[in-house]
Amino acid sequence: MPAHRSTVRRGLAAAAALPLLALAATACGYGSESKDDDAKANVSAGGKKLSSDTVKIGYFPNLTHATALVGIQEGTIQKELGGTKVESTTFNAGPSEIEALNAGSIDIGFIGPSPSINGYSKSQGKGLRIISGSASGGVKLVVNPDKIKTLDDLKGKKIATPQLGNTQDVAFLNWISEKGWKVDAQSGKGDVSVVRSDNKVTPDAYKSGDLDGAWVPEPTASKLVSEGAKVLLDEKDLWPDKKFVITNIIVSQKFLDEHPDVVEAVLKGSVSTNKWINANPEEAKASANKALEKLSGKPLPTEILDPAWESIEITNDPLAETLKTQAGYSVKSGLLEEPNLQGIYDLGPLNKILKAEGQPEIADAGLGVK
Length: 370
Description:
With about 375 residues, the chain is an alpha/beta fold. Helices cover about 40% and strands about 20% of the residues. The chain contains 14 helices and 13 strands.
């Protein structure tokens, strides 16, 4: 396995339950500010500022965002930024993070492919660039084994995804379509009821019987398994070579144009973080769990953390060919018109960093800036 990749295991700490009726309000918000109270996350004394005083980074409290969790927790991103301070914000799903990027509330984000595609397309290629990969895998369909024993049993059941139009939502809608079943993408109504549910709420909704299963990222999937659910399908088994992009790093084009030095520093921190995770998987797992504890109030228990961490692969490669495929899923579901993705990638800064470290350059599947 190349040095820039690592097999990761991770899990998310369960947050306090919220009523299902609160989901719409949760999904519309930009997220919650993460307080950088760890000494390693603060600006080093005497550190030289780059062209911006701060860089605002968004990510999810999911193990599929391990690079951000560990990179901020361990200070490897801050180290490259010197006196330029990291301000972090967490989100439940990609569409709300794209809103924040468009509003200037964040500059750089760790995010899934479908919101990246949608954000790029809706801005007519002017809103963002994908500048790196971060993770592959870590998504599972987990179900109530008393109600669902085979994939065909999903018909007529209530299955959660994190948010309308997020990466798992689009993947599940595509899977439903390939089964020959019909679901209205916007309402989620049809042969399967697709329930858009905040990852923090989904485990309690499952326990109460409001959900029959969920197509979700880690560690929510392993949390559901700890509540008695069974893994019916691992999404990686649907992909060639069992690899598909689950997390990219994006940047607003305005911030990239105005502060390329800051963007390069964040990328250096990301590559350094991924290298450290690869070399120290057990320490990295503990670091991610500590970060999740700060965000949610308690750490993940071992029975959730270990299987979740095991299913994720950390990589600098954005796996651009799989993003093309996922764009097709969004079009087929009716959530997106045929997009022009030319220019969605700017991997020049990343490849410069990788080349300096003696690592191979990464391809953009012909979708890079000209």
